[in-house]
Amino acid sequence: MSTFAEFGLEPDVLQAIMEMGFEEATPIQAKAIPVAIAGKDMIGQAQTGTGKTAAFGVPLISKIAASEDRIVALIMAPTRELAIQVSEEIEKLGRFKGLRSLAIYGGQDISRQIRSLKRKPQIIIGTPGRLLDHINRKTIRLDDVRTVVLDEADEMLDMGFMDDIQSILKLVPDERQTLLFSATMPANIQKLAQQFLRNPEHIAVDSKLLSAPLIQQFYVEIQERMKFDGLCRLLDMEPPELAIIFGRTKRRVAELSEALMKRGYACDGLHGDLSQNQRDTVMRKFRDGSIDVLVATDVAARGLDVSGVTHVINFDLPQDPESYVHRIGRTGRAGREGTAWSFVTARETDHLHFIEKVTRHRITKKILPTLSEAMEGKQKLMAERIMDTVRAEEDVTPFKWVAMQLLEQYDSVQLLAAAMKLLTGDKKDVNIELTPEDPVRGKKRKFEGNRGGSGGGYGSSSGRRYGGSGGSGGGQGAWRQGQGRSDSRGGSSYSGGQRKPYSGSSNRTGGNSSSGRDDGGYRDANRGGRPERRDDSRGSRSQSEDFVKI
Ligand SMILES: Nc1ncnc2c1ncn2[C@@H]1O[C@H](COP(=O)(O)OP(=O)(O)OP(=O)(O)O)[C@@H](O)[C@H]1O
Ligand SMILES: [Mg+2]
Hints:
The protein has 550 residues and is of the alpha/beta class.
């Protein structure tokens, strides 16, 4: 099973899939779509970045009639950014059917959402806190819901949404289909599944491998106070196309992004203390390439799909192995390659080995690049940019006269070197001091990973590897995105990153996550700093278009 046509989808849905540039189904899609179309409950597990959204999105869209004027499908996701992203994918999938969907999340003006609800969307994609808010206000009724999807269900539980999810699910008729998706399935998910899924089919791809071959994983042993300079060296040596740097706490993220800006990097921070407007702006800047470095708490660890992320750097090690997998899974998506670096202090080496053990992946130790290696990397990049401009025969006429004058007076090498120094925006002399973080202390718990599949059991799936040697259905795991989705962002300043065209083989998986996130209430997973606050429901507005006709 490899092409979407084989699922017997209606032409409107097939056309949408083609326009999105999907040529072949990914392995999880190949397995999950027929089961979901058959109406069965399902627990779907596959590595990060392998198309789980469409795996539930395609069957969901297929089942809804455009004439429907009630809410018939409900998708729950842990964070606002994820709710928005999933709703965008659902919107694309349903475009030609003329369905309506609406993202409902905290931090956005509720009366605006209420107005949008009057347009009778058939599909709601929401974070649990705000959903419950609407249910209590009777602005959302779930009486007609026939399909429920829990995306990143383990994370929602981790964030303390169990009660909210239970309250919501109790209001959905029993005669429904429930689908649960994540890259990782820790033990607590079983509880939820037992309670709310009926004879679920366990669909897993490569469940034995929690590793991610398309993501190169490295770690550096480093002292806490050396981390910042180490980070700058890494960014200089291997200039990313886009990079996400994870910090443990909101304070950490705020300090770090400010420090990087001071040193001349195009970066911004994302954490739960920002208003929805600010969060939207940061994400937009990252997606369109006006910044290349996003510093974030775990609010960005789950599900976020930004094409062109070549590097993930764990400035602070995450608390859970699952979180590690989800974090690094922000790169190496849709068959592309990526690189993950983790900073590990001496007292955290045991924790790193625990992560290695759970993810069953060796993380290679590396030594930080020296100052001159880092400088060389940066200079190479500058040279490339200059050469690109020359090769592209860009019009530099207005600069030529002054250039000639300068060349008459000064040595050409001296001149070019000075110009490059200016171009690199090097601000190494800016003094930066970050508040130190305590070393991470792993939760003492037994990891159940994704081996906990009851019944059908995840392990029983043959663990077919797609791409590489294994091939998926049509061979060589050739699923990839065509032109339908932009994967190069115009105007991005970097070209030195190592984004490579899709090359197949990929296996990865994830776990749950730790620190701060979204949605309602508080959550204390951030040691050594203020915990990230979840702030779903009440609050500011968002400028993003929240209602999409699909
Ligand atoms: N069949 C396909 N062919 C090519 N690209 C695809 C296909 N299906 C999905 N994609 C793309 O792959 C990327 C990752 O998809 P998605 O976000 O659904 O992954 P995921 O499995 O949910 O990852 P995560 O575990 O991080 O949430 C997206 O950009 C999506 O558009
Ligand atoms: Mg996902």
